[in-house]
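Appendix C reproduces, verbatim, an entry submitted by the partner laboratory led by Prof. M.T., so that reviewers can inspect both the input and the predicted structure.
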Amino acid sequence: MKNYRRDLDSYTQYLESSGITNFSEVTEQDISRYISKLKAKGLETATINRALSSIRGFHTFLFEEEGGQSNPAELIESPKSTRKLPDTLSVDEVISLIENIPVDESGLWIRNRAMLECLYATGIRVSELVGITRQQLMTQEGVLRVRGKGGKERIVPIGRIALEWIQRYLTENRPGLIKQKRTNDVLFLNRRGTPISRVSVWNIIQEAAKSAGLKKRIYPHILRHSFATHMLEAGADLRAVQELLGHSDISTTQIYTHIDRSYLKQIHIQYHPRP
C-alpha cells in the first residue's frame, strides 16, 4: 500500500509540474513521457513496472467510477526486463586461473587442473562435469558425450591440452582414489573415491583465483561464460556455440553476442583514428 501511494504521489507531482491539473486531460503520451523519465533516473525495470501497474490501476478506477471516454494507461506496454550480462574472464585471466592452481603434496592438483582445463575447453556446466563417466570420454575421437538438462545428450569436442591433463590425472591420481564399487565409473573422484561434488569444484576454483590474485568474482560458471564469449569473439557461428553449450533456445546463447558487441566497441574506440 505504501509503494502504491508513493508511486501515485510521484506520478501526480509529475503531472502538476507538466501543467496538468485534471486527470481527464492525461493522455497516453503523458504517461509514456513519465515512464521515460523513470528510466532516465536509472530505476530498475521491476520498480518502473510496479509504478506503471499503480498508474494503470488508478486510471482504471477513474475510468470505471467516473465513466471517462478512454483509459490513457490501457495501451502502455510494460518495459521488458533486460538480462544481466554474465561475468567473463579474459583469455589471460583464464590462463592465470588455471595455471595458479595450488600444488599440494597429495598430487590432487593434477585432478584439479584437469577439471578446470575441461571446463574451459568444452564450456560444459559444473553439474555436467561432476557426472561425466569414463565411457563418456572418447579420447581417440577427442570428444565428450555430455548429458545435459532434461537428460539431453550432446557431443562436445575437447581440446588436446585438456585431454593431456585428463590423461595425466587418470595415470597419476585416479588409480589411488578408486574404492571398490563406489565410483559408478565417474571420471572425477574425491579423496574418498566417490564422485566429486559441485561444492568441491567451487572451492577449488576459489583457491585458484586467490592464488592467481584475481580480483573479480570467480565461480565455476564463469568458465562457461568465458568459453562462449571467447568463441564468438574469435568468429565462431552462433548456432555452433548454441550446440556446444546445449541451449535449447538460441536466444539464451544470444546474450553472449551483447558481450561480443561491447568488446568490439572497446576495440573500435581504442584503435579507430576518429572514434
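The chain is about 55% helix and 5% strand. Additional entries are available on request from the coordinating office.
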